[in-house]
């Protein structure tokens, strides 16, 4: 479902029952709170029954309350300010162990990502990257760290990798000026989405390049022009997002690409190992 949930509620508001309008009114007014409470708590807050909340979600086109809640959380993460995120995270953790709560949440995100990944898109992304004339990699703000990690590892294998620095938007286009239909752009963006990455993806698609988008859902602004869409679940961890699942997915891409090119890169890594030894790059065990 690609439409924003707030738009869906507004479009259907006029034909809603009185009780469903109560739910919609509460959510639209307090979506930051509503996105992270149970159906029971939402029912109490809106002054309706829990079964009414579940029927509300289904009538809006969702399979049930869990899918509806994930859509609410997508909307919340996109719009919340850093201070709102911190307050909401404190509310969710409460008096429980921070390290236990955060790490168990990360485990759940990896499991959810594994269950929902498109194997066809994953395999297509691997093929596109290994066959590309040039590989452009971009990520902005917190996603830039994953993009740089991916670029660093691909540069070990290929000579045709270009990591696009997130400076000014005009300089991003200058770095990708030569992109064409034999190239691939690998773009990473999670809420709050970067306009620079969105514009870079649109530019690459307009030039006929294949686009591999790593993001949180089909509703993401970098999903529409993706040739291959890789979705990984992220969530708030204070004022930043947890990007453990996206990083795990990037690790899987690196392993798959390495296996696919294994015969060709053996000599390359032998040469690299000799260079590392000659220049004392890594510390040796005593």
Topology:
Elements: H1 5-12, H2 18-29, H3 31-34, H4 39-46, H5 50-59, H6 65-79, H7 82-93, H8 98-116, H9 119-131, E1 135-139, H10 143-155, E2 161-163, H11 169-175, E3 184-188, H12 195-206, E4 210-215, E5 228-231, E6 235-237, E7 240-242, H13 244-260, H14 262-278
Parallel strand pairs: 1-2, 1-3, 3-4, 4-5
Antiparallel strand pairs: 6-7
Helix pairs in contact: 2-4, 4-5, 8-13, 9-13, 10-13
Molecular structure report:
By secondary structure, the protein is α/β, with parallel strands linked by helices. The chain folds into two domains: 75 residues, Arc Repressor Mutant, subunit A; 164 residues, Glucose-6-phosphate isomerase like protein, domain 1 (Rossmann fold), CATH 3.40.50.10490. Helix content is 58%, strand content 10%. The chain is built from 14 helices and seven strands. The strands form two sheets. It has a five-stranded parallel sheet, with helices on both faces. The chain has a two-stranded antiparallel sheet with strand order 6-7. Strand 1, helix 10 and strand 2 form a beta-alpha-beta unit. Helix 4 packs across helix 5. It is elongated and about 75 Å long. The mean pLDDT is 87.
């Amino acid at each position: 479902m690609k439409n924003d949930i707030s738009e869906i509620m507004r479009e259907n508001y006029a034909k809603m029952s009185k009780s469903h309008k109560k739910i919609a009114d509460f959510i639209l007014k307090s979506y930051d709170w509503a996105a992270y409470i149970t159906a029971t708590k939402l029912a109490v807050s809106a002054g309706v029954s829990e079964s009414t909340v579940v029927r509300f979600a289904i009538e809006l086109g969702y399979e049930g309350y869990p899918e509806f809640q994930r859509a609410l959380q997508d909307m919340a993460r996109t719009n919340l300010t850093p201070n709102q995120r911190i307050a909401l995270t404190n509310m969710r953790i409460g008096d429980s162990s921070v390290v236990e709560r955060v790490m168990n949440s990360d485990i759940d995100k990896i499991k959810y990502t594994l269950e929902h990944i498109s194997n066809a898109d994953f395999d297509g992304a691997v093929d596109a990257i290994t066959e590309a004339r040039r590989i452009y990699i971009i990520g902005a703000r917190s996603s830039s760290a994953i993009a740089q990690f991916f670029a660093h590892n691909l540069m070990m294998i290929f000579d045709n990798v270009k990591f696009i620095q997130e400076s000014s938007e005009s300089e991003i286009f200058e770095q990708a000026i030569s992109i064409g239909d034999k190239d691939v752009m690998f773009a990473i963006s999670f809420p709050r989405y970067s306009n620079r990455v969105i514009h870079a993806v649109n530019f690459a698609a307009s030039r006929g390049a294949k686009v591999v988008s790593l993001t949180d859902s089909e509703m993401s602004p970098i999903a529409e022009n993706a040739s291959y869409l890789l979705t990984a679940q992220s969530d708030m961890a204070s004022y930043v997002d947890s990007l453990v699942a996206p990083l795990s997915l990037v690790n899987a891409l690196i392993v798959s690409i390495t296996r696919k090119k294994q015969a060709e890169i053996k000599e390359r890594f032998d040469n690299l190992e000799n260079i590392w030894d000659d220049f004392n790059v890594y510390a040796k065990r005593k």
